[in-house]
Amino acid sequence: MKSSNAAPAYRSRSGWNALLPHRIAREQVPKDRRFRTIIVGAGYTGLAAARRLAELVPGEEVLLLDASSIGEGASGRNSGFLLVNPGEPSANAAGFTEDWAARQIALVQAGLDWLRQLVATHAIDCNWQETVPAITAAATSLGETSARATRDRYEAWNIASRDYRSDELRRILGTDYYRYGIQSLTRALVQPAALHRGLADSLPDGVVLIENTIVNAFSGDAPVRVQTSRGEFVADRLFITNNLHARSLGIVRNRMIGIYTYGAFTPELDETQLNLLGEEPEWGALPAHRMGTTMRKTMGRLLIRSGDSYESELDPAEVRAMLARLYRNRFPKMKSHEFEHVWGGLTAVTHNGAFYFGRVRPGIFASVGCGGAGVTRGTIHGRLLAELACGSQSRLLSDRLALSGPNWLPPEPFRRLGATAQIAWEQVLAGAER
Ligand SMILES: Cc1cc2nc3c(=O)[nH]c(=O)nc-3n(C[C@H](O)[C@H](O)[C@H](O)COP(=O)(O)OP(=O)(O)OC[C@H]3O[C@@H](n4cnc5c(N)ncnc54)[C@H](O)[C@@H]3O)c2cc1C
Q1: 6 lines ligand 1 (CB under 6 A)
Q2: C-alpha of residue 142 to centroid of ligand 1, in Å
Q3: What's this model's pTM, rounded to 2 decimal places?
Q4: CA dihedral 348, 91, 386, 191 (to 10 degrees)
Q5: What are the C-alpha distances in Å from 224 to residues 15, 34, 237, 251, 350?
Q6: C-alpha radius of gyration, the chain, whole number
Q7: What percent of the chain has pLDDT over 70?
Q8: Residue 243 Cα to ligand 1 middle (Å)
Q9: Do 434 and 292 contact (CB within 8 A), yes or no?
Q10: Domain boundary among 332, 349, 366
């Protein structure tokens, strides 16, 4: 097992990034070490914050630092579903009303719309697709009950959805593993590492990105002194957008846990094998239980994502065997259940699903706590964080500010005991959704 400390250090490359041509990381350190703003973490959140700052303040000097190379962090390791899921509609300061689901969907939708626009403007080649079937598929009666309840919720929120019978799922997905499905809130499917690279490589002038640079600590507020693996930098303000690893900078230490989940790609499949994965050339399937298995048929391969482990990355051989078993269960007729790439990825999980977002103290801003649906949600949070720091006002920003923050979590060893017990219990409940 390998643990997460100041910055992520994964055991294997992102399979998505490995499929792309070689890219040279930006590591040039500028002579002048003084910036107006420093941003820690160039995932979707940090990239969005940097871009928005440069848009809002012409001439703004922004230094964006990332411990990994672009495409290798969680932003390039995910499954590429761009969802407009509202998260927890109850997570607002005023308590639950149906109106809050619509407001939270509007937030995430704004992230999606911005990404769509950036992909078009900068011709980012990331296999952006909006018409591919993306289904929440249930394999068990419990999963079906949950999917039907989700569909009722969508209806209450005025979101059109459709359901899929088992024979329709068999035709689309090529397996009779699933008994019921609903159209998910996925609005686009992408190659996530290609999107992440495209966004990083199209940052506005004025943003200096330095990859493979770990921020170890900071002190002061205005100016802020930032200690990194490439020496000290100074800024008037600091944005913390490195998600779970904000904890090692002393931010939101007792409100997030790290959960690893795992992805794998088959080798490129021939036509006969691809036909066994259903009639559609591409599809996405999300699980009906949060501990379940995600799959995609994409770019002539099958992607599978599953498994959860607390704060430590499992041994790759163990992960490979687990994912091969889940793949075989669904597609027993495939010639082989070998994978070309297997990788782990770290997400931040909060007890109530809420983010930490806002001004920590004068000169220090943070948006962290991004779990699932982080491509769209991280993007809009990064953008709104920049707007908050610049004093902009909007309905989206005030809605975002009205959301609750993450709940407090007990210290170790109680935290580990509670989290591992919950993971084990939910895995039992998930049953064949895994
Ligand atoms: C296997 C997997 C599948 C997923 N599937 C989906 C999906 O289909 N759709 C979806 O929307 N979301 C999905 N997610 C979640 C999504 O990837 C995250 O929510 C998203 O990446 C969060 O973006 P972020 O910018 O907030 O954080 P991150 O992407 O984690 O970016 C934070 C960055 O900070 C850097 N960093 C950390 N510490 C330091 C430091 N000390 N100094 C400098 N830099 C630092 C990291 O290298 C990283 O690049 C998935 C995640 C995983 C792991």
Answers
A1: yes
A2: 30
A3: 0.96
A4: 50
A5: 37, 10, 6, 15, 28
A6: 21
A7: 97
A8: 7
A9: yes
A10: 349
